[in-house]
Amino acid sequence: MQMDFYLEQFWKLLSAAPITLLLSVTAMFFGMIIAMFCALVLIYKIPVIRRWVTLYLSVMRGTPLLVHLFIAYYGIPKLVDAIAEATGLPLSVNGVHPIVFAIIALSLERSAYLTEAIRSALLSVPKGQMEAAYSVGMTTSEAYLRVVFPQAFVVAIPNLGNLFLGGVKGSSLASVVAVVEMMNMANIEATDSYRFMEIYAIVSLIYWGMCIAFEQLFARMEKRMGHFRKSLR
């Protein structure tokens, strides 16, 4: 029966959802770490490093994610081999799972867009907050961790949510480097069954459902933390 086929394919595609979520969450996590560094460099206008950060952001924003994935997948092994040959060190990436290269590429790509979201959120925190933190004996790092970052996070939630949803959909490109996430699973099943339209429709519904769920999650986070945001105005 048609319904049996649809249900079977739905569960097969859904079985690859954890890989899609792993790619999305880890790319967001590492991307935010890189973006925080880049944002602070831009805010404090650190000489020399600022130019490199600006160049990095321009390159990452101005080139397709697909290119980043291919460079990571094919370029990193060659780079490691070249370093091993030049230094004599026993370095090798043979046996490294393709998902590692996908996470590297996705993290770098996400960081380029997260940088602006984090920078604008940090600048929205009044300078008086830092002065108040210094007045009670906090160091700069303590002031950022305890005062600035928590307030900036509240302001950044809408942008972070949009960027995360973009990352969920962007993770589908990891299929080109042999990562079996939902899109790759859909390609495999469609090729085997020759039911391309039905299977791509099913995987589209799963992506849509995931994005709706995360939209609701970020909306609740924004609403729950709204009273902190009011205090910044």
Structural account:
With 233 residues, this protein is an all-alpha fold. The protein has one domain: MetI-like (MetI-like fold, Orthogonal Bundle), CATH 1.10.3720. The chain has ten helices and no strands. α4 crosses α5 (98-124), α7 runs antiparallel to α9 (196-224) and α8 (182-193) runs antiparallel to α9 (196-224). The relative contact order is 0.15. The model has no long low-confidence stretch (mean pLDDT 91).
What brief labels describe this structure?
MetI-like fold, single chain, 233 residues
Outline of the structure:
With 233 residues, the protein is mainly alpha-helical.
Topology:
Blueprint: H1 2-14, H2 17-44, H3 49-62, H4 65-87, H5 98-124, H6 127-135, H7 140-170, H8 182-193, H9 196-224, H10 226-230
Main location: membrane
Keywords: Amino-acid transport, Cell membrane, Membrane, Transmembrane, Transmembrane helix, Transport
GO biological process, one term: amino acid transport
Report the sheet with the most strands, covering strand number, pairing sense and barrel closure: none
What pattern of helices and strands is seen along the backbone? HHHHHHHHHH
Indicate the percent of residues in helices.
over 70%
CATH topology, which one? Answer: MetI-like fold
CATH class annotation: Mainly Alpha
The count of domains is 1
Q: Helix count, per DSSP?
A: 10
**Mean pLDDT, nearest integer?**
91
Beta-strand share of residues:
under 5%
CATH superfamily placement: MetI-like
Query: Spans of 5+ residues with little confidence (pLDDT < 50)?
Result: none
Distance between the amino and carboxyl termini: 59 Å
Please tally the β strands and state the result: 0
General shape: flat
Structural class, from secondary structure content?
mainly alpha
CATH architecture: Orthogonal Bundle
Task: Determine Rg (CA atoms, Å).
Answer: 21 Å
